[in-house]
């Protein structure tokens, strides 16, 4: 009989213990036992750990954590991904401070380029070499060309992934539409691309809600793990639900197991779902998975979403004031003015055409940097 230890890794979602304290009662024993017995527990460190107050200019909040002790130990977190839309919130000082803190607690990391260098992570699961890659969407995640989060870039990612020698390849993406439990068309397309070039599993976070899963060419894509530890006083119930993904290798096959849990509101306590709560979650998760595969339901969801969000996106494009945005929301936008319609057409061309988008990106970036 083999005495080889049963090994697995666990991947959880967004980790941002904003109150800085991990309480002693952090969940039911069975859930914590899963984390403690994992060879590696990976989370997305959602923000830099720094004392710096020098923020990087961006749209959206600049967030950070303070070094208040080993906040990772309780959950056996020993590896973090850093490719996300907040890691650069406090500039190069924030990144360097984060790396220093992680090194102090012997936490390995990936998903960031510092002085132009980066790395991916190799894990060993019962003698199988597993490569972990981490990329994010390009959302205020760079300081300069040499110091930045590793981004979703099909050309660069292709070279990195295909030249890597390993038994299995796993991609962890930080991307998708926030607060939507349905993956958008872009994230589905890029996730499938990673499978096409040889990856065995794709996982996503960033949406702050659990999304469905689909199989593609015999491989699994999980579009949203939800939050792991992200205290918040007031939020929808979906904010407090998440899944940890247990990954193991049986008979040369990579297998996964979904472990649903809930955060206790505005705390660092997580509890495995049980009984009625688990039944409700499983029913909802199956519905989300089925909806991804059902073209009619999927298209209907996004048609409704576009109608819901068109005010926010168009008002932003047309630089509406708060008053104009309110009128737009109440009465609807009528593109009767030719110059307004033309402005939207020009903007669409600049963001849709690849060459125009390249120039447009650089022009806007340099304008912000006063170059």
From TrEMBL:
Residues 8-232 form the Capsule synthesis protein CapA domain. It comes from the Bacteria. Belongs to the CapA family. This is Capsule biosynthesis protein CapA. It comes from Vibrio parahaemolyticus. The gene is capA.
């Amino acid at each position: 009989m083999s005495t080889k230890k049963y090994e697995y890794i666990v991947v959880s979602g967004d980790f941002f213990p904003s109150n800085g304290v991990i309480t002693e009662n952090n969940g039911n024993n069975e859930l914590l036992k899963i984390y403690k017995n994992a060879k590696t527990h990976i989370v997305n460190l959602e923000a830099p750990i720094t004392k710096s107050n020098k923020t990087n200019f961006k749209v959206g909040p600049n967030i950070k954590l303070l070094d208040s002790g080993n906040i990772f130990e309780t959950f056996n977190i020993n590896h973090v991904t850093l490719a996300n839309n907040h890691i650069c919130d406090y500039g190069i000082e924030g990144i360097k401070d984060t790396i220093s803190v992680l090194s102090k607690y012997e936490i390995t990391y990936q998903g960031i380029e510092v002085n132009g260098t980066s790395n991916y992570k190799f894990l060993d699961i019962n003698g199988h070499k597993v490569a972990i890659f981490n990329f994010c969407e390009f959302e205020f995640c760079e300081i300069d060309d040499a110091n930045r989060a590793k981004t979703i870039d099909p050309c660069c990612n292709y070279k990195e992934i295909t030249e890597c020698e390993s038994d299995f390849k796993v991609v962890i993406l930080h991307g998708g539409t926030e607060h939507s439990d349905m993956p958008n068309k872009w994230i589905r397309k890029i996730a499938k691309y990673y499978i096409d070039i040889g990856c065995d599993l794709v996982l996503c976070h960033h949406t702050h809600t659990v999304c469905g899963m689909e199989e593609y060419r015999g491989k699994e894509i999980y579009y949203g793990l939800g939050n792991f530890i992200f205290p918040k006083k007031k939020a929808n119930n979906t904010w407090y639900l998440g899944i940890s993904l247990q990954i193991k290798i049986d008979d040369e096959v990579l297998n996964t197991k979904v472990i649903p849990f809930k955060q206790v509101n505005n705390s660092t306590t997580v509890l495995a779902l049980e009984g009625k709560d688990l039944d409700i979650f499983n029913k909802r998760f199956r519905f989300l998975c089925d909806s991804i595969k059902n073209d009619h339901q999927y298209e209907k969801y996004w048609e409704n979403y576009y109608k819901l969000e068109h005010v926010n996106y168009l008002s932003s494009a047309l630089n509406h004031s708060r008053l104009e945005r309110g009128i737009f929301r109440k009465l609807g936008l009528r593109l009767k003015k030719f110059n307004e319609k033309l402005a939207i057409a020009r903007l669409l061309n600049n963001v849709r055409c690849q060459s125009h988008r390249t120039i447009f990106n650089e022009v806007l970036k340099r304008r912000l940097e006063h170059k």
